[in-house]
Structures are given as structure tokens and as C-alpha cells.
Amino acid sequence: MKNIVRKWTASVKKCCKKTKNEHSSPCAADGPWDDAGFWRKVVQEYTAREDAKADKDAKANRLDDVLTLIQEDLRRQQKDNKRLNDRMLEIERLIKAQATGQGSSD
Fold first, then answer.
1. Do the Cβ atoms of 41 and 1 come closer than 8 Å?
2. pLDDT (tens digit, 9 = 90+) per residue, 41-53?
3. Contact (CB, 8 A) for 31 and 7
4. Helix/strand/coil for 38
């Protein structure tokens, strides 16, 4: 689409240089400026690009949200694992203490 606009603009500029007057140039009306279909295509392309950018940003935001949730879950699991490890160590100490206490009392 950009190429079409560039080519048309270049041809208008050449024509206008020849006539020295942009507004009264007969070639100025020959281009797509007065063509509603051309502008509809330009607007559709622009809208599609903006929508694609918005979709990309939305996906990035969703990915950031998912990553944040995963990180929070991982931190929670690490805390739970630490608590479990601490409990296991405490149970082992109690078992050893009980075993040594029972062995010495027998």
C-alpha cells in the first residue's frame, strides 16, 4: 500500500512540477486521492496494523501475567518445601532423641 501511495505521489509531483501549480494540475485529480475505494483500503490496512499491534500487546500482557502467576506459585512452593524440610528435620531429631532416650532407659 505504501508503494502505491509513493508511486502516485511521485507522479503527481512530476506533473505538478511541469505545471508549476499543484491545485490546478489536471493530473492531481487522476490519483487515488478522490477514490473512496483506495482510501477504504488504506484505512483497512492501517486498522489491521493497529489491531495487530494491540493483539501483540495484549498477548504480551497476558504472558507477563502468566509469568507472574508462575513465579508466585514457584515462590509459594519453595516456601512450602522449606517448611516441609524443616518439619522433616524436626521429626528426625525427635526420632533420634526418642531412640537415644529409649535406648539409654532400657
1. yes
2. 878 888 888 999 9
3. no
4. helix
pLDDT tens-place string over residues 5-33: 666 666 656 555 554 555 554 454 555 55
Q: What is the DSSP letter of 24?
A: T
* CB-based contact 16:22 (threshold 8 Å): yes
Instruction: Give rounded-to-5 percent helix, strand, coil for the chain.
Output: 90, 0, 10
Q: Are 7 and 23 in contact (CB under 8 A)?
A: no
The length of the chain is 106
Tell me what pLDDT residue 25 has.
Answer: 47
Tell me the residue type at 43: V
For the whole prediction, is pTM greater than 0.85? no
Tell me the pLDDT tens digit for each residue of 32-90: 556 677 777 878 888 888 999 999 999 989 999 999 999 999 999 999 999 999 999 99
Q: Where are the domains of the chain?
A: 1-34
| Residue of 36, 26, 33 lying closest to 8 (CA atoms) | 33
